[in-house]
Write a structure and sequence with these properties.
about 1000 residues, alpha/beta, about 20% strand, eight-stranded mixed sheet
């Protein structure tokens, strides 16, 4: 019965870092397991040839006597090659492996690496489209190699084209191949098409102790390896001219494809130059250290010198390296020289040593941090290129074109490869860039411990991304004013706005010191009211009041009692008469409840105010209570009125010492000790009701006693009183927010009462770069992190639009304090009711921003910038004409994932990562998108607005650019629930189904 040896994978192939994932599909029988020889066959989609290659391998004498096993390595074939040779695959000598290699050279190296882990001593190469010439092909080379203890043996081959053997053969001649001068002459000839034969590179038997591997180049990789084996002094080789080793197919897939490309000729010309240089350098009176794809390295006394091949590095690269290489021991300190058009450099010999594996994660991390800080990446990470200093630190010696400017992708590449080699001790080629069906982030997750290592590495490089612990004091911590109470007065008419207004008042006033106690006085009177503007609802008022207590905004509710005895006793204390039982005055103004509430206050001072006042703060460090209390030191002053908006920021001396002002009933600070000491005071009675409110009675009393109530002071803190007819204005929420920030139009200056028809508008922005910070219930430590990342920018010419979408005053009151010096160039918008993401986009970009050429940079409040030069690079890109800009994002929950945007066919690519941070765009580009793209079924799209906004802009952009200078944006969010993901999936389907904007506009 035939076995199924297939290994199928239908996922699309991509290029990126990937493990080889060597998998044993079938293992040879026990008799072959310890065979000293492996006949290695690599294949990728060569179903039409494999049967004849495998048949020739099975015919070998070494297979017959169990001295050789056959190992087939399948590099991601999709042509069902197993069906073409299924019977042959059942032979007990056959081992089948699969791996993700990505190129012929990498596949051959994987097979060599595999062989080095077995008991085999030799690997015989057989290409899948070739055949072994005779039954003793492998045996002939093996016997010679064993007899001479050689590192490699090379044989001859015959040639086949279009299925026919050619009369021309490729004889391996020892007098040529083992003579360096003749060999380089021969290489020069065949590389320039002056010889009928090439190097017999496919006829190779290689000892497993040899660590030399095929270079990963697209053509002539086998010639490069054979040339190095023949010319380099560390290897000993043998040549077997006859019998022939193999029959080489001239019309093989790779050979045919390569000959049609210039690279086929170019690689051979380069080989001729390199071979000559390898030979010549060994004649010099200096120590040969090594060579590679870039040049040759020798030691001259105490210096090490690297000479580059002519094509390996150019003037521009050298110029960049001169200024880019750091002046530390992460890389050599080199002196550059150019002679006869070829570059070389010399560097002092630091007497480094080979890496002692495993290397500690700390040492690896320090090296990578040094490379990142220097803004460079070493792309040729392998054991030979990383040395260790005497102090154990790592030293990257491969100075050349493989040192590249830092990018997020290259840094991840470098970090992962070094981690795999230095910490996990994997082979050099285990983790490289290759064509693979496994996405790069998933491939890197397979590196044990690398996810955590890389996350810690990035956070160490950017320590400011770490959130401050909740118990660490922040800039909004306050003390307590032990002798002052805040008393807020409300009636049933205030039910609709009580929670909002009290939250506003308390949060605006509780800084820089909190009150010892916040009391909320509820007048249970049901009406009729003085200047009534709507029906009262005491039950709703009480519900909102309890909510304020439950949320910690108010400490205690006060509801005046209705007992006539309590009313009489209170009036007797204040006015000297006990016969009045009515709670309100003759004009229906509240009286009893307020003076009763004063009696409940336990502190000397009380700041009492109506619940409808709007409080403004121009300077949050202004200690307004201290200013007012300083005036109360005067024994004749019993109260100080709260200031109103002024036309100046200058301190205004307090005035009113002659007693002409009543205590400010709408908002003022009372000295209850002085007031109670002067009681009782006169209050006329008409029809069993008092005629004066308490503040008017005190005003009259002041005139006869020399007492006074003052006004004036620092206008940095002020209040505005909305008249009853203005309390239902649709703009009141916006006005309240603006007043909170100390923003008042000119018409409002010097006015107690609100001027609703004044120009109450959020400040417009016209800077060249404007950051848009949107969020809702963003934690304070995250917002502080976000703002700090803006403060650290080297270019501070940007503006800010910060929108809080209805988190409420208890949460967002402190935003001006957090903004601090950034506030002067910030438009702060705090919605009272949730607007949704799209409307916030439109308000910020289309309304607040007034410069069509402004670049809008999206920065979520819970994220932060990672670099100090983000603004600089955005400005530079905009000056070069970019209208859509992306920079790399780092996500701590997905640290290994890269988000490089693609600007073509993005709706077919699931968005092509154009939705990803860091994203920036011209205001005019956003405004050019029809609002229909932001809607689904006529409603604004509620989420995935990054897709909804960015896809049409990317389609319409004329000059999109991706700037990768390392990670620029730290994006941190919790995982979405399954329900949210399901909702987003439906929205994304609707977004992707829309016509591309460029097509829509044609």
């Amino acid at each position: 019965m035939q076995q199924d040896h297939s290994h199928k994978d239908t996922r699309p192939l991509t290029v990126g870092l990937a493990l080889r994932k060597l998998t044993m599909i079938k293992e040879c029988g026990l008799h072959y397991k310890n065979a000293p020889v492996i006949i290695g066959i690599n294949l990728c989609n060569q179903a039409e040839f494999i049967a004849q290659a495998l048949h020739s391998a099975l015919s070998q004498s070494l297979v017959d006597n169990s001295t050789a096993q056959i190992v087939i390595l399948d590099d991601q074939s999709t042509d069902n090659w197993q069906a073409h040779c299924s019977t042959l695959l059942d032979h007990p000598s056959v081992t089948i492996l699969s791996a993700l290699c990505g190129s012929p050279a990498r596949a051959r190296n994987q097979l060599l690496d595999y062989a080095s882990t077995t008991t085999a001593q030799w690997v015989a190469r057989l290409d899948a489209d070739d055949v072994l010439d005779n039954a003793r092909s492998v045996e002939s080379l093996w016997l010679r190699g064993e007899a001479s203890n050689a590192d490699f043996v090379i044989g001859s081959n015959r040639l086949k084209q279009n299925g026919q053997l050619l009369s021309v053969t490729n004889i391996a001649k020892p007098e040529v191949l083992l003579n360096p001068i003749k060999l380089t002459g021969f290489i020069e000839a065949f590389c320039h098409g002056q010889s009928d034969n090439e190097l017999p590179s496919c006829n190779l038997l290689l000892n497993t102790r040899v660590i030399e591997r095929y270079p990963n180049i697209r053509s002539a990789e086998d010639h490069w390896l054979i040339t190095r084996l023949l010319l380099l002094p560390e290897y000993k080789g043998e040549i077997v001219s006859l019998p022939y080793y193999s029959v080489y197919t001239l019309d093989g897939i790779d050979t045919t494809n390569n000959k049609q490309k210039a690279i086929w000729t170019e690689q051979r010309h380069r080989l001729a130059v390199a071979a000559k240089q390898w030979m010549q350098v060994q004649k010099l009176p200096f120590q040969y250290l090594g060579s590679g794809q870039e040049g040759v390295v020798i030691q001259k006394g105490n210096n090490i010198e690297k000479s580059f091949y002519p094509w390996a590095i150019d003037d521009e690269q050298v110029s960049w390296l001169k200024q880019a290489l750091p002046s530390n021991n992460i890389v050599p300190q080199v002196s550059w020289h150019k002679k006869n058009g070829q570059w070389s450099y010399s560097t002092p010999n630091l007497y480094t040593s080979e890496m002692q594996l495993p290397v500690s994660a700390i040492v690896v991390g320090q090296f990578l941090q040094g490379m990142y800080a220097a803004g460079i990446c070493g792309l040729n990470i392998k054991r030979d290129n990383i040395r260790q200093m005497k102090d154990g630190s790592l030293h990257y010696i491969d100075v050349g074109s493989d040192i590249q400017p830092l990018t997020a992708s290259k840094f991840l590449d470098m970090s992962a490869r070094l981690y795999a080699i230095a910490i996990l001790q994997l082979p050099d080629e285990e983790l490289v860039r290759r064509t693979s069906s496994t996405s790069q982030d998933k491939a890197l997750q397979q590196l044990k411990g690398f996810t955590d290592f890389y996350l810690a590495l990035i956070e160490a490089l950017h320590p400011h991304v770490s959130l401050r612990a909740p118990n660490v004091p922040t800039s909004i911590d306050v003390g307590i004013n032990q002798d002052t109470t805040l008393l807020i007065k409300a009636c049933a008419q205030d039910a609709d706005v009580l929670f909002t207004q009290v939250s506003h008042i308390v949060t605006q006033l509780n800084y820089p010191q909190k009150f010892k106690q916040v009391l909320l006085l509820l007048d249970s009177y049901q009406g009729p009211f003085l200047r009534q503007y709507q029906q009262g609802d005491f039950n709703q008022l009480l519900t909102s009041a309890n909510e304020l207590v439950n949320n910690g905004i108010v400490d205690e509710l006060l509801i005046a009692p209705t007992s006539s005895d309590v009313i009489s006793a209170t009036y007797s204390q204040w006015f000297g008469a006990s016969k009045v039982k009515q709670s309100h005055t003759t004009s229906q103004a509240p009286l009893f409840s307020q003076i009763w509430a004063f009696n409940q206050v336990t502190t000397r001072y009380v700041l009492q105010c109506d619940c409808d006042v709007l409080v403004g703060r121009k300077n949050w460090q202004h200690d307004y209570i201290a200013d007012m209390k300083a005036e109360l030191i005067d024994p004749k002053v019993i109260s100080v009125g709260f200031n109103i908006p002024k036309s100046t920021d200058a301190f205004l001396p307090y005035f009113g010492q002659d007693g002409q002002f009543a205590p400010e009933v709408r908002m003022g600070l009372l000295d209850l000790v002085k007031i109670k000491q002067t009681l009782p005071i006169n209050n006329p009675i008409i029809n069993d009701k008092y005629t004066l409110t308490w503040h008017r009675a005190l005003q009259a009393h002041q005139k006869t006693t020399g007492l006074s109530s003052l006004r004036g002071g620092d206008p940095a803190t002020f209040y505005i009183h909305p008249r009853n007819e203005d309390k239902q204005a649709t703009t009141l929420d916006q006005i309240r927010d603006l007043v909170s920030q100390g923003c008042c139009p000119v018409e409002q200056e010097e006015q107690f009462d609100l001027i609703t028809h004044a120009n109450w508008q959020y400040p417009k922005r016209k800077e060249a770069v404007i950051f848009l910070l949107k969020g809702r219930f963003t934690t304070i430590n995250k917002l502080e992190r976000c703002l700090d990342s803006l403060r650290m920018q080297s270019d501070q010419s940007f503006g800010i639009i910060l929108i809080d979408d209805a988190s409420g005053e208890i949460h967002n009151w402190c935003y001006p304090i957090l903004l601090d010096k950034l506030l002067d160039r910030t438009t702060l918008i705090r919605h009272q009711h949730n607007h949704g993401r799209v409307l916030n986009f439109i308000q910020a970009i289309s309304d607040v921003c007034v410069n069509d050429d402004s670049i809008i940079v999206i920065l979520d409040q819970d994220d932060c910038l990672m670099r100090h030069d983000v603004v600089k690079h955005i400005v530079d890109a905009a000056n070069q004409g970019a209208d859509l800009i992306h920079m790399p994002m780092f996500r701590p929950n997905k640290p290994l994932k890269l988000y490089q945007p693609s600007y073509n066919n993005i709706r077919q690519k699931g968005g092509g990562n154009v939705w990803a941070h860091q994203r920036a765009f011209k205001k005019s580009l956003f405004d050019s998108v029809p609002h229909a793209y932001f809607k689904k079924d006529h409603d604004w799209i509620p989420s995935v607005t990054d897709y909804a906004t960015m896809l049409p802009m990317a389609e319409a952009a004329k000059a999109p650019v991706f700037i990768d200078i390392g990670y620029s944006y730290f994006h941190q969010r919790a995982e979405y629930t399954l329900d949210i993901k399901a909702e987003q999936s439906q929205l994304l389907k609707a977004i992707f189904a829309k016509e591309p904007l460029s097509t829509e506009l044609q």
